[in-house]
Structure formats: C-alpha cells, structure tokens
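User: My instructor asked us to take a sequence, write out its structure as tokens, and then describe one feature of it. I'm not sure where to start. Here is the sequence I was given:
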Amino acid sequence: MTWSFNRLRAGVAAAVAVAAAAWAPAVLAQDYTGLVHARHDLLLSVSVPGVVSRVPAVVGQQVDARAPLLILDDRIQATEVTRRKILLDDMSELRSIEERLRILAPLFEDTRKLLGARGAVSRDEVARLELELLTAKARQAQLLAQKQRERVELTAAEQERDTRRLVAPVAGVITRVDTDIGEWARPGDALIQIVDASVCYLRLNVPVAAVQGLKVGAELPVRFEASANVAPTKGNVSYLAPVIDAASGLVEVRVSFPNPKNQVPPGIKGIVQLSAAKTAR
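Assistant: Let's start with the prediction itself. The structure tokens for your sequence are:
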C-alpha cells in the first residue's frame, strides 16, 4: 500500500513539473532593424537678412567648429567697429588729465603747508588750487567711465558685425550649399547643411518585451544591411524611451557607436539582436 502511494505521489510531481515547464518563459532572441542617424545633421540659416558677400563653404568640405561658412555684406558694421575702436584707443584727454593731476597734487600740498606762514599765500589761492584738483579728479573719473562705455560699445559693434557671419556650430562635413554670392539671404531659410557623423546612433522601435532588463549603457553588437558592405561594430544604449508609443505600442531605443572614419554612412539600416521572454503554451 505504501509503495502504491509513493508511486502515485511521484507521478503527480512529474506531471506538475511538466506543466510548469510548459508554461515557463522561454528566452527568444530576435533581430530588430532601424536606421542609422548622424550625431549632428544641421540645416543652418542666417540670423539677419542681407546680401551674400562670400561663401567659403564648399560641398564635401571638412570644416572645424567656428569655421566661417557664409558672410553677408558687413561693410557698414565693419566701419562702425573701426570708429568705435578709434574712440576707445584715443587716450589723449585722459593722459592730459593725469598729467594735470600729477602737477596739481604736490602744488596743492605745498601751498596748503604755506598757508600757515604769515603773508606767504592767501586762503583764496589754496581754495582755488583745491578746486582745480577736485575738478581734475572728477574729470578723470568721467573719462575712465567713458572708456568703459566705449569698450562695451565696441564689443556690441563687433557682435553686430558677427551676426552677419554664419559659422559652423560643430565640426563636420558640408553636404549642402543653397546660396551664392549676390543673393539675398533671409532668416529661417535653410542655406547650408553640415553633418557630423563621427558618432552615429541606430534608432529602433521595438516591443516592450524586448527591452525588459535593458539599461542605458548596455553594450550591443550592431550589424548593417548586407548591401552596404559595412563591417559590424559595437555600440551602447544611449537612450531608452521612458514611455510607450500609444499608437504602435513600441518603445524607442537608440544605440550609439563611434564612427571616426565615417565608415558607416548615415541612412543605412542597422540591426541589433534583443532577447525577449515569451510564454510557451
């Protein structure tokens, strides 16, 4: 009787184990495809309207950050900068006042000392010299403040001139130039495009189950469509959307990877493999 009961219990345990295995989550690996994007893909415009004077940018040219790309006619602004610089550099009156103070200060001190001697100098003479000294000091303070204003005004004039120069915000390659010398440029018009693909990212939209356990910074192998003939690389998850798209039910994931020699052209398809837990029935 005992033997039959143990056999029955063993059979029940085996059945439970089989059922549990049937409903256990199985880890499945699946490929997900997205598009490769450059770190910076910028359409540039001027901030003020004007006539294009020079276009140093050339399509295909590699430029550094702050390199000039387009210059509007800035002759008026350049003249104003020159005028402000001349005013700032003119120190003639300030030097004259400083020399006057150099002479007046010891003269006043000597005259004040002689005031006590009977008949040496008059009180009016001392008062006159003191007034001249105070007036010269006040004028010196005015001129120093004026030089500070002229320095600020020169900076403002230089900034006004610089608004007529379009410079590269980042290092990259010029991929588009839609203007030429003599044309009228308006703010908001896309004139020059610059692309920095030294770092790229693969943008994917994947099911929620595929991102379970995935964290920012995780390393993932990335391969590319066969027709592109690009070697696989490794990237890191740089962005994991905190929300799920209500329309598609998918989550956006970005995998960034270095691309120092621009071997991976932006726009091609990239593929990563993610594991998702799926319940077997």
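For the description part of your assignment, you could build on this observation: Helices lie at 2-23, 75-89, 92-114, 123-162. Try explaining in your own words what that tells you about the chain.
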